[in-house]
Design a protein that fits this description.
The protein is mainly α. The chain is about 50% helix and about 5% strand. It is built from 16 helices and five strands. A three-stranded mixed β-sheet has the order 1-3-2, covered by helices on one side. It has a two-stranded antiparallel ribbon with strand order 4-5. A hairpin with a 5-residue loop joins strand 4 (about 150) and strand 5 (about 160).
Length: about 325
């Protein structure tokens, strides 16, 4: 009452919540599966709430109101552990980065979204508004979406874009070394930031399998070599770049096949990177496919037709091929 800190040995010190609090928690452990909010006395005493109660909060109602229930659960975790990284913290960090680096975003960054949609089959995505009739992009800020679910990788590992990104942010805050998945989550975000700064399609409705696959492959090829800009800006250090360049998850097969082409024909990857690193910002997306074919023609001595109809068709998955050729099969095809 006099503004002094209470004594650790004070007879008036309270070391536990009352039994009525514990009884309420026990009686409502199942009921909170349907909750979209929690009473103040739970939030005020989060440290005393059992893990099974917290795990049950919004178990069923999250599908109806994912953002509301998610905020409640994350608020609980933040109260228990002040270092806990919330969805809100991720959004604020990315928006802050965009505000400090406006040159990286063609029309700015308007929003960062977290999606848990079952239909989301991508790690992260960059979205813009375009005119429906013409397909021309409107000069409006981009949206970056981050998916919160686990993806099984071909090598047996699992990648969880949002959760691994949160771990990366936590690792940087704590000053510890980034693990592969954590660092790749930052690379994945950088891939989308590069999209946000890109010229884009001249008209969004003219994309073809060839032009889209070539553009995404080149963007991923370049992002793996330049994501250190983002890591450094956030206060971290790149630790896993060699493995990310070789075995990054995004567009794994098409990038591996492009690397095999460069290796087989003796083209240095750094030369291709230097040529294409800024192309996505200065060229329309649909021009990347032709640009890549022309670059290879100049450097490996094959005709444009052979490169397009054989090499790129198999390497990237174009024309009549839905997917790129398996990377091991493609190396056999090349003659390794």
């Amino acid at each position: 009452l006099r503004g002094e800190e209470p004594s650790e040995e004070s007879v008036n010190r309270v070391n536990d919540v009352p039994q009525v609090f514990k009884d309420w928690v026990e009686m409502n452990t199942e009921r909170v599966k349907y909750a979209q909010s929690l009473p103040y006395f739970i939030l005020d005493n989060a440290h005393y709430v059992p893990k099974d109660f917290i795990d049950n909060v919004g178990y069923y109602s999250v599908k109806k109101s994912p953002s509301v229930v998610g905020d409640v659960i994350e608020s609980l975790h933040k109260l228990i552990d002040p270092t806990y990284i919330r969805d809100k913290d991720v959004k604020e960090l990315i928006m802050d980065f965009a505000g400090k680096n406006p040159a990286l975003f063609k029309y700015g960054l308007g929003e960062v979204k977290i999606t848990r949609a079952a239909s989301a089959d991508y790690f992260m995505g960059e979205f813009r508004t375009c005119e429906k009739a013409s397909g021309v992009y409107l000069p409006k800020p981009s949206t970056i979406a981050i998916v919160d679910k686990q993806f099984p990788m071909s090598d047996g590992r699992m990648f969880a874009p949002l959760q691994d990104l949160k771990k990366a942010i936590q690792a940087i805050k704590e000053g510890r070394k980034l693990e592969f998945n954590e660092e790749y989550a930052l690379e994945s975000l950088w891939h989308e930031i590069r999209h946000a700064g890109a010229k884009g399609w001249s008209r969004a409705n003219i994309a073809t399998k060839e032009t889209r696959n070539a553009m995404e492959t080149i963007n991923q090829f370049c992002a793996r070599r330049s994501y250190g800009q983002l890591v450094t800006a956030l206060g971290g250090k790149v630790r896993n770049q060699a493995e990310i360049i070789a075995n990054g998850y995004g567009y794994n097969t098409s990038v591996a096949n492009l690397n095999s082409i460069l290796e087989y024909y003796g083209v240095k990857p750094q030369n291709l990177y230097r040529y294409f690193k800024d192309r996505i910002q200065t060229s329309y997306y649909e021009e990347i496919y032709e640009d890549l074919a022309q670059y290879l023609a100049r450097n490996i001595g094959l005709s444009i037709d052979t490169i397009k109809n054989d090499l790129l068709r198999l390497a990237l998955g174009t024309h009549d091929r839905r997917y790129p050729m398996n990377k091991d099969s493609f190396r056999i095809y090349l003659g390794f």
